[in-house]
Amino acid sequence: METDSRVKVGLDALLEALQRQGDRDDHDRGLIVERLGWTPEQRLDANTAFLRFYFSARPHGPLIRDE
Predict the structure, then answer these.
(1) From CA 16, how far away is CA 62, in angstroms rounded?
(2) What's the whole-model pTM score?
């Protein structure tokens, strides 16, 4: 019975998160607040991870080029 209540709580949390994500402004504010709390090291790690991903997806440069 305890497992059922944990599953319900997990599903409720998932549904709430999806609803909040559906509200673009609320989702954006949440991301901004989260990132403002990051340390400089966390920001650097996140930027490094993004650049690694970007260069693996676009090894030949950006899709849009200034000409």
Answers:
(1) 36
(2) 0.48
